[in-house]
Write a structure and sequence with these properties.
Length: 419
């Protein structure tokens, strides 16, 4: 952790409190800096607290800070100096945390469960089961206390040490059941928002999904146009891949495989193949662990696309073939045809033209008038009686029909793999 010298620490404290406090003794500032382990983040937080209480003697603030120091274990166990620094930082964090009103304190600790270090207002609202307006007020309170940083419009981020502290407070003050429910809310929000972004941002077909339900009162992100949808996806990409990992780790298997499945065509159209490859492997693990054959088939097809882009053609063919077998078992003619087409393109990449013709043409025979599923349609396992072959709107169908086959748009048998 980067530290300042004693003189630099005192100068930083003086600079922040100068407008509010003018009579503080240098020796007390030196002691305050020592308690903060000369860490800039801790110094700034303490200075803001001192500035906010201009009539309180600095020695009383120092006493208060010392009293907190015995409450917390060190963030990490290293050398003696590292432990002292970590203990000092946690003491300062605890000092600020204890000054928060209960709703803001709860927001802070629940944010430790968020998949990544940065997040938007809507994700924070989903995590804490509140409205975006209330969430924004709590986030602004936390930013004002230097427990969060505002990093864009309606967007915030944690310092890594503060995130570790928030995780610790969530584990101390929230039950395991409450933590799991909060995590399911925010991961479900990412899943539903990703599906909405894919519908608005990708002018192509995708396999129908029956998405995991959201808790009442949690609203996914909505998009007015493709530009907004893709901008959201690009901002949230790291959080989305992290959400797959966390869902897989916590046994939330449907969410784990459905996030990349919902984003299939956005990923295929916009990303280097290896960007989502680790998440897609975890998605396959989750689908298999859940015994979800439909999810397994979709994920195998997605992995086939990724391996094909990487010119790992043997692995691509294996995935497409496995997906075909499962779709055939399920009686899903569209899924079978889609995977067969992917296999045909992989054969083309390998210059096996006759194999490509055989794989790509046979499944489509007799299906010239078949329905193209929409990204929002239910899976074959839905219980509401709707057909999985939900028709897309005429506008989207025209858009789809006007595009050449995917492998002609994006690839050729002689193209180099995307990096």
């Amino acid at each position: 952790m980067e530290t300042l010298s004693q003189a630099e620490s005192v100068r930083l404290l003086r600079t922040i409190i100068a407008e509010f406090r003018t009579d503080d003794d240098d020796a007390e500032l030196v002691e305050l800096a020592r308690l903060c382990a000369h860490l800039p983040l801790a110094l700034r937080i303490v200075a803001e607290r001192a500035a906010a209480r201009p009539r309180m003697p600095l020695r009383d603030l120092i006493t208060e800070l010392r009293d907190e120091s015995g409450l917390w274990d060190a963030l990490s166990v290293g050398g003696e100096g590292d432990a002292d620094e970590a203990d000092a930082v946690r003491t300062v964090f605890a000092w600020s945390y204890r000054a928060l009103a209960p709703p803001a304190a709860r927001m802070f600790r629940l944010l430790g469960l968020h998949p990544g270090p940065d997040f938007g207002v809507e994700a924070a609202a989903a995590l804490s089961a509140t409205t975006p307006a209330r969430a924004r007020r709590h986030l602004d309170t936390l930013a004002g206390a230097h427990l969060l940083e505002e990093c864009g419009h309606d967007r915030y981020q944690f310092h890594d040490l503060l995130r570790a502290y928030a995780v610790d407070q969530a584990q101390r003050e929230e039950s395991a059941d409450d933590r799991r429910v909060a995590l399911e809310r925010v991961l479900g929000w990412y899943l539903r928002s990703a599906a909405a972004a894919a519908r608005a941002g990708s002018c192509t077909y995708a396999m129908p999904l029956a998405l995991e339900p959201l808790d009442e009162g949690v609203e996914p992100k909505a998009f007015n146009d493709a530009k907004a949808a893709i901008a959201w996806y690009e901002t949230e990409r790291d959080n989305l891949t992290a959400a797959v990992r966390i869902a897989n780790t916590n046994g939330m298997d449907r969410i784990a495989w459905q996030i990349p499945a919902a984003l299939t065509m956005v990923i295929a159209d916009r990303e280097p193949a290896d960007t989502w490859l680790p998440a897609q492997r975890l998605a396959l693990e989750s689908a298999r662990r859940a015994g979800d054959r439909y999810g397994e088939a979709i994920t195998l097809d997605n992995l086939g696309i990724a391996y094909r882009h990487l010119f790992r053609l043997a692995e691509a063919e294996e995935c497409f073939s496995a997906a075909m077998r499962i779709f055939q078992e399920l009686g899903d003619t569209f899924g079978h045809a889609r995977a067969a087409n992917g296999l045909g393109v992989a054969h083309m990449f390998a210059h096996r033209v006759e194999d490509a013709r055989s794989a790509s043409s046979r499944p489509w025979s007799g299906h010239a008038n078949s329905t193209i599923p929409s990204t929002s349609g239910p899976s074959p396992a839905t219980s509401d009686g709707r057909s999985s072959n939900t028709r897309i709107s005429p506008g989207r169908r025209r858009c789809w029909d006007s595009r050449p086959p995917y492998w002609l748009r994006r690839e050729s048998p002689w193209s180099r793999p995307r990096r």
